[in-house]
Design a protein that fits this description.
By secondary structure, the protein is mainly α. The protein has a domain of about 45 residues. About 80% of the residues lie in helices and about 0% in strands. Helix 1 crosses helix 2 and helix 1 packs antiparallel against helix 3. It is elongated.
Amino acid sequence: MFVFSNLLMALATVINIALTIYMWIVIARAVISWVSPNPYNPIVQFLYRSTEPVLWRVRRYLPIRGIGIDFSPIVVILAIYFLKLFLVRTLIQVAYRWG
């Protein structure tokens, strides 16, 4: 059973790292939206392409529209924190119990 425990621990670690990286990408996208970035810059294009599918889905369900402030990055960051606290910790605890 230690193999399953190690697999869950590795999976929890990879998910934690991926969520942290994506959180920083969302933060960079939010910060870059405060200025007028060059839309042809490859970094700006990457930030928009990697975050827009998630942010667009969140924006569809937010009741606040037309006030000029985009709250979708905040909602996405809170969802990432929730996944890190719930999913990653649960996987780690299950891995410890099986190990």
